[in-house]
Amino acid sequence: MAMVCLTDFEEYAKAHLSKATWDYYAAGADECCTRDDNLLAYKRIRLRPRILRDVSVSDTRTTVQGKEISFPVGIAPTAFHCLAWHEGEVATARATEGLNTCYITSTYSTCSVEEIAAAAPSGYRWFQLYVYRERKLSEQLVHRVEALGYKALVLTVDVPYTGKRRNDIRNQFRLPPHLKVKNFEGVFEETSVPEEYGIPANTLDPSISWKDIYWLQSITRLPIIIKGILTKEDAELAVEHGVQGIIVSNHGGRQLDGGPASVHSGFCTLPGYSDRQAVIISCVIYQGEEGVREVLQILNDEFRLSMALSGCRNVAEISRNLVQFSKL
Ligand SMILES: Cc1cc2nc3c(=O)[nH]c(=O)nc-3n(C[C@H](O)[C@H](O)[C@H](O)COP(=O)(O)O)c2cc1C
Ligand SMILES: CCCCCCC(=O)C(=O)O
Description:
GO terms for molecular function: (S)-2-hydroxy-acid oxidase activity; FMN binding. The chain is of the alpha/beta class. The chain is 35% helix and 12% strand.
C-alpha cells in the first residue's frame, strides 16, 4: 500500500497493533478534550500566501543550537518504541540521523541511551529527563547522556502525577515482561511494587519546583529546555531561571484535560517565546527505521510545498505575519 500522508500511517498502526497498545499511544486524559483540541487547533490555522515571489528554489534547512538541521521538525520524546517495532528507539534514531534532524530521546525508552547513541553515532539528540524522588537517579542519567554526546536536557514538568487515561486503566496497560525501560535496568528491580505501566509507581517527585532548576543547573553543563509550559507567566519564570529553551506542550493532552491546545498557546499566548513543535508517532510501527524515514520525508516534502505555495523561499522568510487562526 502506498503511504501518502501521516493519516495512512495512523490507520496502519491502528490495524496492526493490539488494542491495548493502540489505546496507550492514542490516549488522552479524562474526556480527551485537550487531546482533541490539539488536532482541531491545527485545522484552524490559516496561511496568508504571498504570490509572484520566485519560488523556483526552496531551502528548508534551519539551525538549532547553531547546528544545521534539514527542516524545522524534530521528534518529540515518546516512550516504549519497542511496543511498535522490535528495534524500537534504535530504528527511530537511525532514521532521524539519516534525515538530519533532532531526536529527543525519552527517559522511558525501551532501548538504553547507550544503545541509541551507538546505533546512530552522528545523530543529533537531546535527552528528555524527569526529576525523581531519588535525585541520584536523575543525576546518573544526566551524566550518562552528557558522556554520550546528547546536546541538551529536556526537562518534562507536566507529569507530577500521571494523567488519568481511562482506556489504559480499563486495559490494565503495562509493558509486557519481555520489554524493559532499559535506562533503568537493574535499578528498580527489587523495589518495584506497585507498578504503573510496568514502571515502579511514585518514583517521579511531585514536589518538583523552580528551585530544582537550580539543582539541575548545578549538576550539568548541558543546556536545559523545559517541556510542558503553556502560560506566559511560566515562560517568564523559565527565562528568569536561566533556562535555554521551552517547549510549549500539553503532553498531547495526556496529562491535564482542559488545558489549551499546544499550538494555540504557542502562537497566541506566547508569541515571541515559542516556535511550532511537530510530533511524529505512528511511523515506527510501519517498518521501523524505514517507516520513520518515510514519515520524515513526507513531512519534509509537505513543508517544502506549503512554504513555496505561501511564497517563502526559505525558513527565514516565514514570519508570524503568514499565520492566522480562524475562529471556531
Ligand atoms: C505514546 C506517547 C508517549 C509519550 N511519552 C513521552 C515521554 O516519555 N516523555 C515526554 O516528555 N513526553 C511524552 N509524550 C508527549 C510527547 O512528547 C508530546 O508532548 C505529545 O505527543 C504532543 O503534544 P504537544 O504538541 O502538546 O507536545 C508522549 C506522547 C505519546 C503520544
Ligand atoms: C509512570 C509514567 C509513565 C509515563 C510514560 C510516558 C509518557 O510520558 C506518556 O505520556 O505516556
